[in-house]
Amino acid sequence: MNNSRQDLTLYNAHFIDGLVKAGVESAVISPGSRSTPMALLLTEHPDIKEYIQIDERSAAFFALGLAKVSGKPTALLCTSGTAAANYLPAITEANNARIPLIVLTSDRPHELREVGAPQTIDQNRLYGTHVKWFAEMALPDAEESILRYVRTTAAKAVYTAKQSPAGPVHLNFPFREPLLPEYDGLFERLETDRFPAIHLNEGMRVLPQCEIEELAALLQGKEKGLIVCGEQQSEGFEEVVVELAEKLGYPILADPLSGLRSGAVYSDLIIDSYDAFLRNDRVKQEAVFDVVLRFGAMPVSKALTQFLCRHAGKVHCVVDGGGGWRDPIGVATHMLAADESAFCRLLTSCLKEREDTSLWMRNWIRINQGAKAKMESIGEDQELDEGTLFYEILQRLPDPSALFVGNSMPIRDLDSFFFANHRRVRLLANRGANGIDGLVSSALGAAAVTSPLYLIIGDLSFFHDLNGLLAAKLNGIKMTVIVINNNGGGIFSYLPQAAEPKHFERLFGTPADLDFSYAAQLYGAGYEKVSDLSSLDTAMAKAERADGLFIIEAVTDRVKNVIAHRELWEKVSQEMNKLTAGDDFWK
Amino acid sequence: MNNSRQDLTLYNAHFIDGLVKAGVESAVISPGSRSTPMALLLTEHPDIKEYIQIDERSAAFFALGLAKVSGKPTALLCTSGTAAANYLPAITEANNARIPLIVLTSDRPHELREVGAPQTIDQNRLYGTHVKWFAEMALPDAEESILRYVRTTAAKAVYTAKQSPAGPVHLNFPFREPLLPEYDGLFERLETDRFPAIHLNEGMRVLPQCEIEELAALLQGKEKGLIVCGEQQSEGFEEVVVELAEKLGYPILADPLSGLRSGAVYSDLIIDSYDAFLRNDRVKQEAVFDVVLRFGAMPVSKALTQFLCRHAGKVHCVVDGGGGWRDPIGVATHMLAADESAFCRLLTSCLKEREDTSLWMRNWIRINQGAKAKMESIGEDQELDEGTLFYEILQRLPDPSALFVGNSMPIRDLDSFFFANHRRVRLLANRGANGIDGLVSSALGAAAVTSPLYLIIGDLSFFHDLNGLLAAKLNGIKMTVIVINNNGGGIFSYLPQAAEPKHFERLFGTPADLDFSYAAQLYGAGYEKVSDLSSLDTAMAKAERADGLFIIEAVTDRVKNVIAHRELWEKVSQEMNKLTAGDDFWK
Question: Rg of the Cα trace of chain A?
Fold first, then answer.
């Protein structure tokens, strides 16, 4: 009944070589026994870079961060049992955020399932609807037809994971003992010539020319339009959407994850302070648009969402190359499944050149600049509340660099304080399911393929994935973590329950009283605590020189922070009232 | 469309009161927004003790440990999205280990699902085949019929979770904003009189009398029988199985989790060194039995499993009150779905009294005592290898106390070195899926309801659930953790790959180089490092006096440890050869 060592070896080697031929370059491996053949052969393959993380939950988020930045499917490998269950949080995020992952779980063979054998759970469709494809693999065998099958399956897994919308796929491998393959120098000897690699092209969705022309005619008649851009993955999108905006005379409301707030595309039609000025009632009410063209995921800003909702009934086109239904507010009038860049290019080519800048466009630029000027006044503060801190850190990011931000407050502060600029700062976050989990690991996975990388994260979220830090040491990765430690869940202070003190701190504030200098020592990271701008400068300089992990801890106050944010929004709002006073501002 | 505050309040309050009336006493809550109504009302209910843990993965294992020791279903509550996904590892363990959990996830309402809304994943049947029951709940409503429905559903959830085999159930609650219920003093005002509590009795499986009598006749004719006991949950089992063994004249091979190795049932027919002496070829071959009566889960010992396999074809009865198919080695001849205690009582009453102790029984006692004497000689060692350390710690456990052990090596060392005794030491482990994850939290959940509690755990496993430590501080729980730090995965040194150094340390040894004194400081725990018996004494005494968490770190060596274990087994094997020499030992 046992498979021979040759069956085990060739089956796994050809599968892994199939992954490589289909474009997989990295694998994140967690230690285990059942996964032995795959782990040894992934490590042995000259074209796979392997990363190790002991905690499978962190390993999966690491793979997600790596795939997010590289754009290439990353393989994940673990042993049987709860190990595989630990992948679920990252898999749900990958599925929602459209990140290609190749999840490989090893399993007991069929005769040891559901009979009380150790370390055995039902791994069949373990991730339910949260993967794009599941396959239960055949037992190891070195027959020609089986080797062809594993190579084909590897290619199909990559092809499926990459097709828009990209996402995770799951293959479950039953392995019998003995589990030790031949591996030393195996890939030099492996005969792969008789298996030609399969050329893969995932294609893209486009609209027929007539539909584009109709849309062009519709838009050309509408002066008051908005382009809204959320996180998207279409190549070259930033340039072509700016070109489209110029031709239409529409401002672009650009989410921080849209790729439009930094880099070569910098233009004043990129509106970056809308989250502040759309809190003003007059602007919300009077800036009435006729049409919205929306690309990518729904932006982070709640003020923007509420503004779009308020004027429901206008033409609202949702363009998504992944064909998803991205309309949580139920305002879409057009659902267009089309690659975002291709769509912009085609539409632009159907539009007439504009002679001048419209009043509409000039007004959006004016209120944006007015709001931004007030927001930037935060830089004059001496005390480091979270807003000031965020603003100051963003000023100090090197060019080029990457910034990963946590969910809950950091992504919202990024939205408020990262103003459009020429610098090449790549902004990253986990906005598929917006969890506070797995962020250290996601950032480290990203840092494995882009450097320098900074992570700004709250204390609860940092705590949630402290284990993730181990990957820096085990794989020699450099990263700077800036922990904004307000000792608890800052976002709850903005919710209605904050007004009622009973149970608030126990259930929502949840102060953990953690001194992260000990976490730094545990994981061999550099560490600085900052309390003012000069210590921030020193810490950022030290972090830049550090070889590996560096942790900067900034202690802030949840209550003061809410007050400071509200004061700032109030200042912006007053400025908006001044700027848009009179009846003819929007006329 | 929004539900009124009254709908939200009454719906949740009656559900929670329904849980309490059905026997739920504890809830483990992780902070979140969508779960606000349930969190506030669980905390407010006077008969629910709530525990807080920020990391949902740890929270779920905490609930599992608590339910394991209390025997009562524990509620678990989290917000929407990846938070809920983090429960999966503990849920798979609970499902395999038969632990009743009431998993409550909060969710976006239907109109916000699969339309790109934030923090939203498909939570419908999120845990797949790993829960006993899933229900998507109705929206909050205060109609009489709906209040009756939520109370009934609460009772049904508890009833289902507790029915043998016990396990987790999952209820998913869609909540619309606003999420803040009335709660202050609510349960004093809540009118529950018109909803009488439902009396629940989960019943038990029993065999018809004729089947018991046939079995009694079969067994009475067979002198050479064995009783094998693994982990089981049938009340009062320990006493009745010893009585049965005495009447049959069969030795009991008792797994450490069977409940038979300590306490009032102590008897020399409880065989506790079989993992050592069944490695001896002569014993394995010559101790031929005619019949096996097996209760509970498959024991930990691989030597025992192989011995049972070797003599496949003999009468082998698997008795399981949960009706599971617990036979990973495929040797069962009788599958009997019957409550273990009831089965023993009925069978005993059908058997005749024995006059004397048979040679068969005397032989098992002789070899057990011979092996044990050799095993105990480990206590004479000066150096603390893992075996010695384990043996010495076990000698020092207070009476009464509870001991939770980690998977991989600790459970195997417990099997080797915890000899049957009179002390009341409750032995606990997570042997459903045997993961190395979630053990700190499982032990802390157990420590919340039984004290003093000790956890012995390896360094990789301790690392995996470091976050679990936070619950000690947040909930004021006392526990002593003894970390056996051999800097990596000790169990891999016993596997074939240990013979091949290439990739071994990177993929399997995985040294993390963690100094856990920093983890102790991070979580405000007491800490001692031990290197010999006298420092172990000091550390154990300090731990006993400590108020909260105390961590004892013992640094050992993976390579030396394998050698020491093999030497010890060799010593036992030689002793067995001597003891059983000649042809007439078993005759």
Answer: 26
CA distance B55 to chain A (A): 6
Q: Please give the pLDDT value at position B1.
A: 47
Helix A359-376 / helix A558-579 crossing angle, nearest 10 deg: 140
Fold held by B209-373? Rossmann fold (3.40.50)
Of B116, B470, B495, the CB nearest to A33: B495
B470 interaction partners in chain A (CB closer than 8 Å): 463, 512, 514
ipTM above 0.90, yes or no: yes
pLDDT digits 0-9 by tens, B105-157: 999 999 999 999 999 999 999 999 999 999 999 999 999 999 999 999 999 99
Q: What is the mean pLDDT of residues B369-384?
A: 84
pLDDT at position B451 is 97
Q: Where are the domains of chain A?
A: 5-189, 209-373, 386-556
Record: contact A54-B474, CB cut-off 8 A: no
Q: Is A514 on the interface with B (CB under 8 A)?
A: yes
B427 strand-pairing partners: B403
Which chain B residue has the Cα nearest residue A97?
B116
Q: Check pLDDT > 70 for residue A2.
A: no
Asked whether the beta carbons of residue A91 and residue B85 sit closer than 8 angstroms, the reply is yes
Q: Are B92 and A88 in contact (CB under 8 A)?
A: no
Q: Is A530 helix (H, G, I), strand (E, B) or coil?
A: strand
What lies within 8 Å, CB to CB, of B520 at 6+ separation is B526, B527, B549, B551
Distance of CA B554 to the CA centre of its chain: 24
Q: What is the pLDDT of residue A385?
A: 84
Could you tell me if A292 and A453 are in contact, meaning their C-beta atoms sit under 8 angstroms apart?
Answer: no
Query: What's residue A525's pLDDT?
Result: 98
Hey, which CATH number is domain B386-556, 3.40.50.720, 3.40.50.970, 1.20.1410.10, 3.40.190.10? 3.40.50.970
Of B56, B112, B119, the CB nearest to A433: B119
Which superfamily does CATH assign the domain made up of B5-189 to? Thiamin diphosphate (ThDP)-binding fold, Pyr/PP domains (3.40.50.970)
Q: Which of A220, A224, A350, A238 is nearest to A295 (CA)?
A: A238
Alpha-carbon radius of gyration of chain B: 26
Residue B54 has its nearest CB partner, among A128, A463, A491, at A463
Using the Cβ of B412 and the Cβ atoms of chain A, whether some distance falls under 8 Å is answered with no
Tell me which of B44, B82, B95, B408 to substitute to probe the interface with A (most A C-beta atoms closer than 10 Å).
B82
Quick check: B77 and B35 in contact, CB under 8 A? yes
Residues 6+ apart with CB under 8 A from A181: A5, A8, A9, A12, A13, A36, A37, A40, A41
> H helices of A281-432, where?
281-286, 302-310, 340-349, 359-376, 386-395, 409-417
Q: Which residue has the tokens 């109705």?
A: B138
Task: Give the residue from chain A lying closest to B297, CA to CA.
Answer: A116
Give the Cα separation of B192 and B147 in Å (integer). 10
| B470 interfacial to chain A (CB closer than 8 Å) | yes
Q: Are the C-beta atoms of residues B365 and B226 closer than 8 Å to each other?
A: no
HSE value, Cβ hemisphere, 13 Å, CA-based, for A284: 18
Q: What percent of chain A has pLDDT over 90?
A: 91
C-beta atoms of B327 and A115 within 8 A: yes
Query: CB under 8 Å to A240, separation ≥6 — which residues?
Result: A341, A344, A345, A348
Assigned token pair, A266: 């910098």
Could you give the CA distance from residue A41 to residue A46 in angstroms, rounded to a whole number?
10
* DSSP letters for B204-272: -----HHHHHHHHHHHHT-SSEEEEE-S---TTHHHHHHHHHHHHT--EEE-GGGS-SBSTT--TTEE-
The token duo for B440 is 């700190």
Q: What is the pLDDT of residues A160-203, one digit of tens each?
A: 999 999 999 999 999 999 999 999 999 999 999 999 999 999 99
- DSSP annotation of B542: H
Q: Distance (Å, rounded) from C-alpha B275 to C-alpha B416?
A: 7
